[in-house]
Design a protein that fits this description.
The structure is a single chain. By secondary structure, this protein is of the alpha/beta class. 31% of the residues lie in helices and 16% in strands. It has eight helices and eleven strands. A hairpin with a 5-residue loop joins strand 2 and strand 3. The longest helix has 16 residues.
Length: 237
């Protein structure tokens, strides 16, 4: 059986430059859709968070920003169906990522608060990247690579091709003007070869060897689907 480690933010808010905290967590579609697709493929999924804290759903992701009403209703129902798993994650510092065939980070604004600075996560990401085994990060989750450092202090992902939520897409959020920094800028500053689609809020996936990334919530299905296709292709005799 294929084993997946789903690393989810434990943050409940994103601290803005005026000192206010924007309530957040994980983005519904970015967790629910990959989880559903991997589960339907028969894969076994383990959810991990920093400290083993039950992750918080960003309610904005099931509002108008989360798509059409029917889709939002389906996603909420699916999240309810896996509530017991989400309520009892394992602690990230107890995880041996070598026991998993895929490590997958869904996004939301939460990672901007915790995973961007989490050294346990950063060390895991560096080991995973170096191992050559599949690693995927979606939307805001690529910010977690900022905590992945080489021994000389440089970023372990420098020179690798990745995508993630673009500045243009971030600015569509009404609170974005209060953000201390944007994901796209931070990845570029870290030396990542950042890429984005021509049209905002459309699916866009980048694959660089064992490193998979998706640009936005709309890329959730496309990213998971690409991973499933590549695993199927690799399994063929």
């Amino acid at each position: 059986m294929t084993n997946v480690l789903l690393v989810v933010t434990a943050a409940t808010g994103w601290t803005l430059k005026d000192g206010t905290v924007h309530p957040t967590g994980y983005w519904a579609e970015e967790l629910a859709e990959p989880y559903r697709l991997f589960s339907e493929a028969g894969w076994d999924i383990t959810v991990a968070t920093p400290g083993g804290v039950a992750p918080t759903l960003d309610e904005l992701s099931l509002g108008v920003a989360g798509g059409l009403p029917k889709k939002r209703k389906q996603i909420r129902a699916y999240l309810d169906s896996i509530k017991n798993v989400l309520d009892h994650p394992v602690s990230l510092d107890t995880v041996d990522e070598t026991q998993y065939d895929l490590v997958f980070y869904p996004g939301g604004h939460g990672p901007m608060e915790d995973l961007a600075f989490d050294l346990v996560s950063g060390a895991l990401l560096k080991r995973r990247l170096d191992s050559g085994e599949p690693l995927a990060l979606l939307c805001h989750a690529p910010v977690a690579v900022l905590a992945a450092k080489n021994s000389d202090g440089s970023n372990a992902f420098a020179g690798r091709r990745m995508t993630g939520l673009s500045n243009a897409e971030e600015k569509l959020n009404t609170f974005a003007w209060k953000a201390k920094w944007f994901l796209q800028d931070a990845l570029i500053d870290a030396g990542v070869k950042y890429e984005k689609g021509k049209i905002p809020l459309r699916p866009y996936v980048v694959v660089d060897g064992n490193l998979y990334s998706g640009q936005n919530p709309q890329s959730a299905d496309a990213l998971a689907g690409r991973i499933l296709d590549d695993f199927k292709a690799a399994a063929k005799p």
